[in-house]
Amino acid sequence: MSAPESAERPGRSPGTAVVIPAAGRGVRLGPGAPKALRTLSGVPMLVHAVRAMAGSRAVSLVVVVAPPDGVAEVRRLLDEHPLPGSTELLVVAGGATRQESVRQGLAALPDDVTTVLVHDAARPLVPVDTVDAVVAAVHEGAPAVVPALPLADTVKQVEPRTGERAGEPEPVVATPDRSLLRAVQTPQGFDRDTLLAAHEKITLQGEGATDDAGMVERLGVEVVVVPGHEEAFKVTRPLDLVLAEAVLARRRATDGF
Ligand SMILES: Nc1ccn([C@@H]2O[C@H](COP(=O)(O)OP(=O)(O)OP(=O)(O)O)[C@@H](O)[C@H]2O)c(=O)n1
Ligand SMILES: C[C@](O)(CO)[C@H](O)COP(=O)(O)O
């Protein structure tokens, strides 16, 4: 018998899967284990991210994309931290770029999947409400959905100094209107066929895209934004680990976990 659907959350459906690219090294975080395997409050970052996705009742399958030489280790780690409920978990080998890793994850999806979320392992603390908002927007008909936040800083476009001129002050060439800009997070949600088309067609043009929605934009398909969340930040640099531990400590104090 299927679980009853709540009024607030989309119901678990066989058609919604998540691909979690987790094959990066985490160079900006500094020396150590691959970023997704580093721990936050004693639990690997990847496990936090998988739990966050499986916490959405809409998600029935999570495909983790592991470093090519780390598939067995990632499988073992995930087996040591079993998920409550019935979410299925696959682990596949990733590639040299995020784009390639996502592509490997997409290749592992069963035929009955119609909605695909792509979520960075490096965003371990995304709240389930954000996941549900993305899923709901796709289920309501948007082919591509990104969670995003307004910018806190003023942004400048510069003329980068590279090569022999690296390190010189960079001239500012423009100050974009901040009210028109958004900082984009994950999970990004897609109609499966749209995302597959983007990965098939845009890949031919090179590996330059830094997010999946950017590839869909290049197809000429509309991408829409839903509100993101401060706690969905990406663990990129060492200070982000401090922030992540603080968020977890606050959750333990207020929610008991
Ligand atoms: N070849 C790659 C590169 C990145 N990723 C994943 O893409 C997500 C976002 O990338 P980022 O935060 O840039 O991670 P890294 O590439 O690991 O970081 P860095 O650029 O500092 O090395 C991460 O979950 C990362 O594991 C991946 O699956 N395969
Ligand atoms: C996908 C992403 O997290 C959206 O903000 C971001 O583009 C990943 O970029 P990174 O340089 O690979 O961390």
Automatic annotation (TrEMBL):
The keyword Transferase applies. It catalyses: 2-C-methyl-D-erythritol 4-phosphate + CTP + H(+) = 4-CDP-2-C-methyl-D-erythritol + diphosphate. One of its GO terms (molecular function) is 2-C-methyl-D-erythritol 4-phosphate cytidylyltransferase activity. The lineage of its organism: Bacteria, Bacillati, Actinomycetota, Actinomycetes, Kitasatosporales. The record marks 28, 35 as: Transition state stabilizer. PANTHER family: 2-C-METHYL-D-ERYTHRITOL 4-PHOSPHATE CYTIDYLYLTRANSFERASE, CHLOROPLASTIC (PTHR32125:SF4). Belongs to the IspD/TarI cytidylyltransferase family. IspD subfamily. It holds the Pfam family IspD. This is 2-C-methyl-D-erythritol 4-phosphate cytidylyltransferase. Its EC number is 2.7.7.60. The record marks 178, 234 as: Positions MEP for the nucleophilic attack. Keywords: Isoprene biosynthesis, Nucleotidyltransferase, Transferase. NCBIfam families: ispD (TIGR00453). Pathway: Isoprenoid biosynthesis; isopentenyl diphosphate biosynthesis via DXP pathway; isopentenyl diphosphate from 1-deoxy-D-xylulose 5-phosphate: step 2/6. It comes from the Bacteria. The keyword rRNA-binding does not apply. Catalyzes the formation of 4-diphosphocytidyl-2-C-methyl-D-erythritol from CTP and 2-C-methyl-D-erythritol 4-phosphate (MEP).
